[in-house]
Design a protein that fits this description.
Elements lengths: L1 E7 L9 E9 L2 E10 L4 H20 L5 H22 L7 E2 L1 E7 L2 E7 L3 E6 L2 E4 L6 H7 L5 H6 L19 E7 L5 E5 L1 H4 L4 H10 L2 H14 L6 E7 L7
Antiparallel strand pairs: 1-11, 2-3, 3-4, 3-5, 5-6, 6-9, 7-8, 7-10, 10-11
Helix pairs in contact: 1-2, 6-7
Length: 245
């Protein structure tokens, strides 16, 4: 596996409220996380960092006792409670929250835990698969046929989300998997600072053409060229084929 990750403040924000992490859990198991904090000032940054640190720590502990999806559920629940409690206890952090998308690759399978509108993609052969669903109001309107995908991209409230860590005690988590992993598969995790400005087709073309490190750099440059209205975080995990090994 070849892995690269990069985060950029963008061109409009004063703080980078995104956080990310890549961790080796076991010999054949890795965990990748992207979180996009919200709340303004430094509070979003605190929430996203707490999410990454707590999910990684709890997942690694829980995996010794439970299967992957149950360990992800437990890790997200603790992260949610910890962020909510901190926001209630510390006045300057009131109202903070964060998206979180965590991807586990274990052997020839992958699993995801997801809340918010950060995304995980799988690029396989000539196909683009968005593995996560945006928990945003405009995406809900698209699903209900009230808004086209094209209009959703330009909607002034496209960043309003209805699920996030640290906002509600009983927030529901999306758990996905197991899904198969094949040689030459490429996984992409990113915050919406990228996907609001770069299309799925462009993601596919760049990620397929470039090395993971160069792909991260090119995608961030493209988002910034188009305005860089938000923080931009990208992680690319490229599986090696049998021939590469």
């Amino acid at each position: 596996m070849e892995v690269a990750q990069l985060s950029d403040i963008g061109r409009k924000r004063k703080h980078n409220e995104d956080s990310f992490g890549f961790f080796k859990v076991a010999e054949d198991e890795v965990l990748a996380i992207v979180a996009d904090g919200m709340g303004g000032h430094a509070s979003g940054e605190v929430a996203s960092r707490m999410a990454v640190e707590t999910i990684q720590e709890l997942y690694s502990k829980e995996r010794k006792e439970q299967d992957v999806l149950e360990a992800l559920r437990a890790a997200f629940e603790v992260a949610n409670f910890s962020i909510l409690q901190r926001s209630l206890e510390q006045e300057d952090l009131n109202g903070m929250g964060t998206t979180a998308t965590a991807l586990v690759i274990k052997g020839d399978q992958t699993f995801l835990g997801h809340m918010g509108d950060s995304r995980a993609y799988l690029f396989r052969d000539s196909n683009v698969h968005q593995l996560t669903k945006d928990h945003s109001m405009v995406n809900r309107m698209v699903e209900e046929g009230l808004l086209s995908k094209e209009d959703a991209q330009r909607h002034p409230q496209r960043n309003v989300i209805y699920k996030a860590l640290g906002v509600s005690r009983d927030a529901e988590l999306d758990l996905i998997g197991p899904l198969s992993v094949q040689g030459n598969d490429i996984f992409l995790l990113c915050s919406d600072g990228l996907t609001n400005l770069v299309s799925d087709e462009e993601l596919f073309t760049i990620v397929k053409r470039e090395s993971p490190q160069k792909g991260c750099e090119t995608l961030i440059q493209l988002a910034n060229k188009r305005g860089g209205d938000d923080n931009i975080t990208v992680q690319i995990l490229k599986m090696m084929s049998q021939r590469d090994g």
